[in-house]
Amino acid sequence: MKWVAGVIVGLIILLAGVVYGVNRALVVIPDNTASSPQYQNNKFVNPTPIVDGGIGTFITILKRSITEERLAPVPAGPLPVDSITTAQLEALSPDTIHFVKLGHSTILLKVFGEYWLTDPMFGQRASPFSFMGPKRFAAPAMTIAQLPPIDRVLLSHNHYDHLDKDSIIALQDKTKHFYVPLGVAAQLTQWGINPAKVEELDWHDSRAVTHGKVTLTPSHHFSGRGLTDRNQTLWGSWSIEVQGKRVFFSGDSGYFDGFKQIGQQYGPFDLVFMENGAYSTSWPEVHMFPAQSVQAFKDLQGRYLVPIHNSTFDLAFHDWDAPLNKISQRAEQQQVTLLTPRFGQIMSLDAPARTTRWWTQVQ
Predict the structure, then answer these.
(1) Are 342 and 82 in contact (CB under 8 A)?
(2) Are strands 106-111 and 97-103 parallel, antiparallel or unpaired?
(3) What is the pTM of this model?
(4) Which of 25, 102, 266, 352 could form a disulfide with 239 if both were Cys (CB 3.0 to 4.6 A apart)?
(5) Three-class SS state of 214
């Protein structure tokens, strides 16, 4: 029953520390929130409100963590992680988009010669604490020290498994630009990031980049890192359009009509990085089940689907490999082109390498 204690600790941190808030956090209301349609009654909201179950939901989840058995909450053996070097990245052609999954929702992209990162999470634990909380299954495919200079970092929201303090601080000197949802800039500048490097966006705000633009698009989620900052910062997804290529990064989201609207307004997308993991019937509005992830991909009019937000931390009740097993089955049923690269495997948009069901070989 050792794993039960671990699940309980992890859930208490994830739910109390992130959802309900147990550690103190600085609340800074950005000056430009008043005009945001997403900011109502002193907080950011979703178009369709999320039902807050309060303490009753927390007790139900805690009970599940004690009584619900799982066969494989964590991998039985080491995950296959490809070694990767800066020299390999530099050798990649600068006339298309390449990408490497580094872990969780952290993706390194080479976008027509520029290096970009999404939700850089290189820490050992998705937690406000260094000594407890969900621990990584495997080290990132590259360390921050090994990364090339980063042109742009895209952040989706401020939860601990997406906005990691130590990672951001380590990236400050090698990153030119940080793009963040409304309110998140205050957290970065508090950690020492030069404010001139940080740009805040509301939903549907765009910023010009080399030969294209990035746009913060909606998601159905929430924010918070402590007792006093529930939904005081915005959350979102990202649309990337550079030299006619379109890429979508989901961040975290429950399934909602917004995917169809994003597909109509900003798609079709050549490449979709879609959340697929940490789902549960206990929080169905803020994370998608694999079948919903596939449907969201279809709503976005995507070409290639790459599941993210899995195989790195134990953040829910499902087995560690369930997200990839289930989305593979659903994608085959729906005739969706699914790419499941290993962490560290280099992929190119114009000619994606063959991927395998690598997780089935973990023993």
Answers:
(1) yes
(2) antiparallel
(3) 0.92
(4) 266
(5) strand
Distances (CA, A) of 338 to 124, 274, 303: 28, 11, 9
Structure tokens at 358: 């690598």
349 neighbors 112 (Cβ within 8 angstroms):
no
* pLDDT value for 209: 98
Burial 261-287 (b: 16+ CB within 10 A, else e): ebbeebbebbbbbbbbbbbeebbebbb
Q: Is the N-terminal amide bond of 268 cis, ω within 30° of 0? A: yes
Residue 267 three-state SS: coil
Which DSSP string do the residues of 242-265 spell out, in sequence order?
Answer: ETTEEEEE--S----THHHHHHHH
109-150 confidence digits (pLDDT tens):
999 999 999 999 999 999 999 899 999 999 999 999 999 999
What whole-number distance in Å separates Cα of residue 176 and Cα of residue 150?
A: 7
**Rounded Cα–Cα distance for residues 296 and 174 (Å):** 34
List beta partners, residue 111: 97, 114
